[in-house]
Amino acid sequence: MTNNNSTNTPNRRDMSTELAMGGQALIEGVMMRSPHRVAMAARTPDGGIALRAYPYRPVTRRNKFYGLPILRGAIGMVEAMKVGVDALNWSAEKSEPKANSEAKKASFKDKLFSFLSTGFAIAFGIGVFLYLPYVLAKLLVGGEESQVSFHLIAGGGRIIALIGYMWVISQFKDIFRVFQYHGSEHKTIFAYEQGQPLEPAQVLKQTRFHPRCGTSFLLIVAISAILFFVVVDTAVVALWGPYRNAFTRLLVHLPLIPLVAGLSFELLKFSAKHTRNPFVNALIQPGLWLQKITTKEPEAPMCEVAICALEEALRDPAESVEIDTVYPRVITPIPVPRHR
Fold it and tell me: Which of 49-63, 86-100, 112-126, 301-315 has the highest mean pLDDT?
């Protein structure tokens, strides 16, 4: 059990502000990351909680060069995706009956299908959130007369597509539950930062809107891309002339996406340290509004899963844990209004 002494609250908040603490919603579960450990917990079909935890030190903390500003954000994004996909696959396995899970492990076809599905998802994302907005902007403003107008339209289209996509998938029952677990992750982190006891009753009292959420990061990336590519495209057009088409522009922009992510990471890190500044607080509000879609009010058992993940993330970094099913303390479910 972690120490919940409120006297440690400043240290906890400082650690989280440095983006060393965080998490991710899983299928019927939550993944948590501390500066030295990754832990995940998922509710199993029999009502228990499966746990997995292992020591983990990001490459940006192992190598000073990779820890340089901007570069650390780009590398951290790739690392977070790798850890996140691994955790999602694990939670999907644990959320199914054991017989089905074992069958899937031995299936090459399932692995191939998963690989192809991931490739399709990446291609779909690039097409919808990058290529199509460029086509739209090209049709409306031509693309070469004003790079500012072009990217305001392309960026606006990208943000609208992002919000629309999140809203549509939030209407599906399974995704709605994932978003509830997302809310439980945020509430648990808030309770930890404020030195509150890590109990479902206390966790449920916290807000589900967190300024350091990945949803806010996506919005910062979308806005940063508008400003960044205005500068890039102005230079490209001045040096080499107008782009031939939207696809050529996409080929130029794709290799620069990690740089945009790195810049966005620094903005997120800065905003996390200055949330009490009125100007910064106003800037982070759109990200919090977007979380009304990507987080939902959780139920008490969901908070229990998030608590288990956080407690495991805060344990001895050298200890690895792989437990099929544990049965934690019995709790009395607390009714929570569920708002869509």
Answer: 301-315
pLDDT at 329 over 60: no
154-194 tens-digit pLDDT: 999 999 999 999 999 999 999 999 999 999 999 999 999 88
Indicate the pTM of the whole model: 0.82
Residue 208, in any domain of the structure: yes
Sign of torsion over alpha carbons 11, 310, 215, 228: positive
> What is d(CA 43, CA 54) in angstroms, rounded to the nearest whole number?
19
Residue 332 lies in a domain: no
Q: How far is CA 99 from CA 27, 111, 256, 325, in A?
A: 18, 17, 45, 15
Residue 9 near residue 16, CB atoms below 8 Å: no
- Could you list the residue range(s) of the whole structural domain that residue 239 is in? 6-326
Into how many domains does the chain fold? 1
Give the neighbor-by-neighbor strand order of the sheet with 37-43. Answer: 22-26, 29-34, 37-43, 49-55, 321-326
Position 98 scores a pLDDT of: 65
Residue 331 lies in a domain: no
